[in-house]
Amino acid sequence: MFQVTLGKVTTTLNNLKDREYQPRELTQKIRKQFPATDFLFYTKKSNKIDPNQVIVSGCYDADSDNEQDPCIEINLNYAPNLTVDTGKIDRVQLAFDIAECVHHELVHRDQNRHPRQKSKISKKLLETSNEHAYLGDADEIEAYGFSIAAEMHIFKISMHQCSMYTIYNSLFEGSAVMPNLEKHIKKYFKILELEDETK
Description:
Elements: H1 2-14, E1 20-21, H2 23-31, E2 39-45, E3 54-60, H3 62-66, E4 72-78, E5 84-85, H4 91-113, H5 123-126, H6 130-135, H7 138-155, H8 163-172, H9 177-198
Parallel strand pairs: 2-4
Antiparallel strand pairs: 1-5, 3-4
């Protein structure tokens, strides 16, 4: 399924002419690849983003899902300049970032729809900082396990070369978080490899 999403977004981006697009226009072209019943796409702007760069972020809303409303929000974040030159963006990276973000949020949707007992993380560890609390949450450990596995699978790198793994290791080295994260990475990497074999 991840490969299907990646393929659709890659095709959409590759079909774009090398010209300047309004950010909203570019968002709409990508948005058409996803069902309106599940996804909301937004165009956002930030001074922290370089021209002709698109940063992808997302979130899952369990309350909206429970109400059977669109529950996954994908934000395409652009620099505040008026247009994006598609001849200058990294289409491969952008396609991956969108597919990875979408499926990271789908992991969260699955967690809500099929609750399972969470691993217990040390309360002391979670109280250390907001970043520890967020990344140390069992649901995020699983979702980022998917994200790291997807990066390994697509770019043919080891988990230690993935930026998110490096962040986790710097925050949680020696704690119970890392074996848990690596368990999820291996699980999702195997799923992605099998998905490739059956397509």
